[in-house]
Amino acid sequence: RKEVEQDPGPFNVPEGATVAFNCTYSNSASQSFFWYRQDCRKEPKLLMSVYSSGNEDGRFTAQLNRASQYISLLIRDSKLSDSATYLCVVRNTGGFKTIFGAGTRLFVKA
Amino acid sequence: DAMVIQNPRYQVTQFGKPVTLSCSQTLNHNVMYWYQQKSSQAPKLLFHYYDKDFNNEADTPDNFQSRRPNTSFCFLDIRSPGLGDAAMYLCATSPSAVTYNEQFFGPGTRLTVL
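Structure tokens for the assembled complex are given below, as produced in the milestone run.
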């Protein structure tokens, strides 16, 4: 079993749609959680950190469920520019061990 | 602008010919990481430096080495590249070991092995 697993993609959605991604992690000692965005052939960039109480940034909402060991990302009112791969990232105790999920590809179409 | 810079952006080498990739940062971060990312796969952590302390991931092949001569620079040496080492190599930095710190990535070096 992979340490971080994400929804298989790709997701193909129309503009304006709401789309949700899930991610599960296997190490209960994991401490910090993030969503990164990676455009084709570019480097990953932080989209948002995920806090225990859940957090929102504009059209993006992240949730953490420690009991079930999963993280979610909700994108409302999808834009063409949201088309990218979304990577779930988990950092374990000690701060250095960073594990990326394989990513979920999103295509938003006009 | 403060940033993470990687050179070259594209590197072509021959099977078995040593190659060095470089990373520099103007963020003055203590921690520098090297990741390998193959097509459609997750970035995989190879090793990191916390200041001068080097930490190798358990499954990083011996073929991969790293040097950090100062805070700003870090190098990835591939001693004898194989066809399976063709990938994007990403350098990243973070301010410290605190788990909630964001990692800042460079644009990557895409390595081709002929």
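The longest strand of chain B covers residues 87-94. The mean pLDDT of chain B is 93. Further analysis is deferred to the final report.
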